[in-house]
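Human: If only I could read C-alpha cells as easily as an amino acid sequence. Take your time, and here it is.
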Amino acid sequence: MSSFLQRLRAVHAPSIGLGCMNLSHGYGQQVPEPEALRALDAAFDMGYRHFDTATLYGATANETLLGRALKGKREQVLLASKCGMAIDPETNKRVIDGHPDTLRRQCEASLKRLQTDHIDIYYLHRLDRQVPIEESVGALGRLVDAGKIGGVGLSEISAATLRSAVTEYPIAAVQSEYSLWTRNPEIALLEACRETNTALVAFSPLGRGFLAEAISDPASLPEGDMRRHMPRFSPDNFAHNRELLDDVTRLAKRLGVTSAQLALAWVNAQGADVIPIPGSTSMAHMRDNLSAETLYLDAATCQQLTAMLTPEQVAGGRYSDAQQADIDTEEFTVNR
C-alpha cells in the first residue's frame, strides 16, 4: 500500500476527496471568502478528510482559504497541494518552473498560507520540460526528508515520466484526469502506477461538470471559464457528447441515483488505489458526491458503463492545442 493510501486510512478518510480549485480558480469568478469558508466547514462536517489545493489556484488564494478553513483541524485531514506552476504576479501569466530552488521556495510559501508545518502530499503540478524530472523529484524528496512534506506526488505526467521519477524517489500518488469520458490513464499510466506502488488520484471525475449534467449550454459559461477553450465543449462537439450522456442518465434513473453518483461510483470501482476528488461550490452537490462512496456497482453495471462515452465515441480533445502543450500524459487520437 502506498504511503498516500496509508495516510488516508490514518485520518479515516472516505474514498472520495474534495478538489478545492473550483472555489478560487478555473470556472469564472472566485467564490466570496465567507461563502467558501462555509462550504469547506460543511464539507468537513459531512465527512470529507482529503482536501486538494495548489499554489496556482486563485494565484495562491485557494491555499490561503484552505489554511483558514482547516485551522484547528489539521491533524484530522490529508492536505494536498501542488508546486511548479504559478501565476507570475508581474505578468499575471501562468509559469511552469520545476527547478529545485523554485520548488523549495514555493513549498515554504505554501506552508505559511496553509498555516501548517507540513503538507501530507506535495505534487509537481506540471512537468517542466527544461528540467529533468529526477531533479525536480529529488528536490521534493529532500523536502520529505526535512519533514516539510509527507510524500512526493506528480500531476499530468506519462507512464514513462513516472518510471523515471521513481528511480530518484518514491512517488506516493499521481494526479490525472480520469472519468467515464476521460480514460487516458488506461493507456499506460494506471499500469505504471500499480507497478510502482503509486496511488492514482482522479481529478475531474465528473468531466468538469459534464457528467453531473451541470452544463446545458457551454455558451452560458461565464467569461474566464476554462471550459470555453476546451474542444469537448465547443458547440458541435458538446451536442454530440450530450447525446452520449443520455445513456448514463437513463441508467442512473433506473438505479435511483444521480448521474454524478453513478460516474463517481464507476471511478471508485476501478480499484482501491484510485481516489476521485470531485470539486464543487455547492454544499448540496458535495453531499451528493460523497454519498457515492457507498454505491456499489456489480460487474455487469460496470461493464455497461465502461462501454459508454469511450474514447472512440467522445468528440473533441480534453484540452486545446495550447493547453495540451503543457501536458505530459498519453493521449488518445480524438475526433475534433
Residues 3-217+271-292 form a domain with the TIM Barrel fold (CATH 3.20.20.100). The chain has a mean pLDDT of 95.
